Structure to design on (149 residues):
């Protein structure tokens, strides 16, 4: 909720934004669903990942068709990237080089959209906190790509 509240304040201070987005993970936060709904009510995009941002990275290679706990992301990414993945400065450039190709980004968008749609269809009522191994970072990415074009 703090990220969304900050974005709302930023949006109110400056009127020349084309769009305002929040990017956040589920992790163990209990206000995840509320934050997404709050963002929506204020016309702020929510590029969320449940459980963590690494879901977006994995979707550059394959569709996550079942839940994968975040303590397995590092191992899975190490296999997919063919080098050890870690959340540190030393691997950021290698990860970017491996993922930031037009083909990989298009693949991630498709996989993430399919995963999100599967969760929405299967979860009634729709609660993003129940969308294990899901991300909407693809929505932000599509928005940025459309804006660039």
């Amino acid at each position: 909720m703090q990220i969304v509240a900050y974005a709302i304040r930023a949006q109110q201070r400056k009127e020349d934004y084309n769009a305002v987005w929040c990017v956040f993970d589920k992790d163990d936060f209990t206000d995840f669903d509320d934050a997404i709904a709050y963002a929506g009510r204020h016309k702020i995009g929510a590029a969320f990942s449940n459980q963590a941002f690494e879901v977006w990275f994995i979707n550059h290679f394959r569709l996550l068709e079942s839940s994968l706990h975040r303590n397995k992301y590092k191992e899975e990414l190490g296999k997919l990237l063919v080098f050890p993945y870690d959340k540190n400065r030393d691997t950021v450039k290698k990860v970017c080089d491996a993922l930031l190709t037009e083909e990989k980004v298009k693949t991630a968008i498709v996989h993430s959209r399919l995963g999100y749609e599967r969760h929405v269809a299967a979860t009634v009522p729709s609660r993003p906190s129940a969308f294990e191994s899901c991300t909407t970072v693809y929505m932000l990415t599509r928005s940025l790509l459309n804006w660039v074009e």
